[in-house]
Amino acid sequence: MDLSEVERSTLLAWADQPGPLAARARIVLACADGLTASDAAARLGVSAATVTKWRSRFLQRGTDGLSDAPRPGRPRSADREEAERLVLSAIAEARRGGRVPTTRSLARTVGLSQSTVSRIWREHRTPEPPRTELSTPDRVGHGLLSDQVYQVLRQRIVTGELVPGQRLVESDIARRLGTSQAPAREAIKRLAHEGLVSSLPHRGNYVAEISAEQAREVRDVRVVLEEFAARQATVRIQPRTLRVLEESVDRMRTAAAASDIGAFREADITFHRDVCVASGNSFLTRLWRTIEPNLWGLHVVSNPLYGGDWTAMAERHADLVAALAAGDPDEAARLFAAHAMGKASSTC
Q1: pTM of the complete model
Q2: Average pLDDT of 60-77?
């Protein structure tokens, strides 16, 4: 699936906003980056059928296909509109850690059936940004709990609170975070997919231990890919793409100021993925997505153990954006290769 610059920019903007469009945009972006329906579903925490549905809608109608079509039948009643308002308010309250009414009590309040209120709840419940603490198990749906457990565990791995080689036991995680074992199990699967957790048959799950040799090999491949991507992107870069890259740099600056290493790494790897996309070579993008879990898991991108100035690291990415905008393919390729090798762009 190939995206135009306008389509990708639109989808990236939607993906950062609350609401159902964000999840649909992330599905299309994942498919455009070469992920299969099952891989995209595993990464995004949705079903393969959901991925297939919105990918097909996009292929048929473009970005317009991601919006909700008018529903058949009679217009929504004032009672239903009131039910939607109450459900949305309840979901927001749940995400703030507050008390949440049951669907039965909401149904009594608005005079609709419990099944109707439950359906409204499912329609509007969408993933939210990572939270530092879990809600209690009965406050929100299973999918959201799984996302929260995943974010907590990943943050603890990135910050070193969970050390390489440490065993991750589902029942222990569930007990400590106040959930059932199912969300913990799904979270560990996602972390294993990213390379942050090693799953050993008949032995269990462990925080991945970083191999210096593997990290060197992946870094060598990254240098080749980034040098090529920068050279190709420079001759076809669009102002909208430059703005997208600048937004990633801004997120790095914000994360650095807040000492949020996890958010910095997210923005960093998104930056380099978008440069690959800007090259216009879809096969290069697929290659990047293939090694991306290893770049993350082997700490080849934004090593969370880095002891230097994270703000300065963000500014190095600003230098890379400037190089792309300057239009010199050789210079951009040199700077990106130096950056991938771990050298400051201003010193080479």
Answers
A1: 0.47
A2: 64
